Amino acid sequence: MQCRIFTTITMIFVLTITVGAQSFERQWDQSNATESRPEWFTGFTNRGIASTPEFVFVASRSPDLSADKKTVMYMNPKTGEFLGTLNVDPIVLGPFAVNDVATSDDGQILVSNLALYHEQWVPEGTWQFKVYKWTNVSAVPEVFIDYDNPEHLRLGDLITVKGDLTANAVIYAAVYQAPKAVRWEVVDGVLNETPEIIELQGIVEENAALGFPKVIPTGVTKNDPFYYNATKTALKKFSADGGTILEEIDPANFLPSNGVEGRDNSFTHFMVGDQSYIAALSIKGTGTSSPAEVKAVNVTNGLNLAMDPFYSASLGTANNEQLNGDISSTVIDGEVWVFLLYSQSGFAAFKYIAPLPEVVVPVTESGWRRGSNPELDSIDGRISRPDWLSENSRAVAVGNGHIYVVNCAPGKGPGEILVLDAADGSYLNKKLNVAAVNAANPTSDLRISDVEVDDAGHILACNMRLGDAFNVFAWDDEDSEPYLLVSASEIPYTDAGDEGVWQQTAYYFDVKGDIKGDAVIVAARSNLAITYRWVITGGVVQNEGVPTVVVNDVP
């Protein structure tokens, strides 16, 4: 049975981002956002960016830079200061001889052409795919990969390398507008020149939607799983052979900062301690003039459970009809730096800022308090209101020495249930597994509306019924999978002709007893003086699907 804290929760609502949340801090910016985009950064010719602790590289085929439309510039990653260009004189292969750039863990530089031919649009193009390698910025490039590409796959939009090219590494080139990726492996410093063509199973979108795809491997061998993303498909993690989708992010949990549907393609992976993060080139909308930003999320517990993304500033408005760009990350002096490039907008550097530790609040005989009142809730100059608390924090329950808090999501998005220490209200960096709960309530305004704890410590949660069935899920403990305890799609006393508005059962519910023994569950009908009741005897719901209706005598 839960203890509600309506007054406290209402009092500490704040609608703005609070100090202490993880974020990206802009270090330098050469983009439309700061009116500092370089003159050479025009058209759709600047497509690739890569980084090491010493340099940030931009691959360009801009005619404003060189007569033969190819160059790779390198800059100071801390300041963006131009330092020089790579020697690209030996590179001669079609009109798109330089298209993308990547860096290996040992600091070597790889640059690919774009393998593309079309008799009308690219008559001077080629299906030959080449990757050149520089051991350092002063080196002469050598041909590293020379692939005949007999299947005529469009390769080179975005390439990836992971590992040490003098030891073990893998190189990926995802295929444009096809669910495929091509992989090369380096073992003991020797490249296997015969690549594997990986068929990606389970992608249901039309092939034409898979624009600017990218692969990020999780390890340095061909046996390691990999992440995959492309325009108009959700970020996925595949088995090494591409035959199984191991994880997939819920797009509703990975929206741009403006909360609307957007487009992602390129992405990068970085670690902060033992925590794993994905950062994507996020386009804030589906239109060609939508600005781009960095959008990152913690994926330590898997893509399926990833939520609460955080963002950088945008690169400003641009007319990028092709929605192409790139993103890269590296560690400089122990700190994570992320570099974002978006065609027609420019490029910029952002530093990852870790969240401050949660404020420790004093516990007195009368309890504890976490709020946003500067006079009552300031401790050592910091407000004690927790970062996770927002206008979507709507219900709490107490049990098992913990507090369970429901955070709903706007726009019928997935909800979450956080676990706090009841002794002082500190967040335990733990959430219940609610994937099945969210999946069962896809059209509910609130997929998770309320949470309860029964007398034996079992945890229960319900949705707010509006189109879906009214569902109550239960957890045996905080680490278990949820299971469906009660589901009722036919709720009596409905309002004829107005079912879509008034069948809201329920914002809140309650439980008394032990659901593994004898218990009762009650739920109030919103907007009508009606209560529904389910009886559990010996661990079995006696009136499953057909609750007892209690009409309250309320005027």
Layout of strands and helices, then pairs:
Layout: H1 6-11, E1 23-31, E2 46-51, E3 56-60, E4 71-75, E5 82-85, E6 100-103, E7 109-112, E8 116-118, E9 122-126, E10 129-134, E11 142-147, E12 159-163, E13 169-174, E14 180-187, E15 190-191, E16 196-199, E17 211-217, E18 226-231, E19 233-238, E20 245-248, E21 263-272, E22 275-283, E23 292-298, E24 310-311, E25 325-332, E26 335-342, E27 346-353, E28 378-379, E29 382-383, E30 393-399, E31 402-407, E32 416-421, E33 427-431, H2 435-440, E34 446-453, E35 459-464, E36 470-475, E37 483-488, H3 499-502, E38 505-513, E39 519-525, E40 530-537, E41 540-541, E42 548-551
Antiparallel strand pairs: 1-27, 2-3, 3-4, 4-5, 6-7, 7-10, 8-9, 10-11, 12-13, 13-14, 14-15, 14-16, 17-18, 18-19, 19-20, 21-22, 22-23, 23-24, 25-26, 26-27, 28-29, 30-31, 31-32, 32-33, 34-35, 35-36, 36-37, 38-39, 39-40, 40-41, 40-42
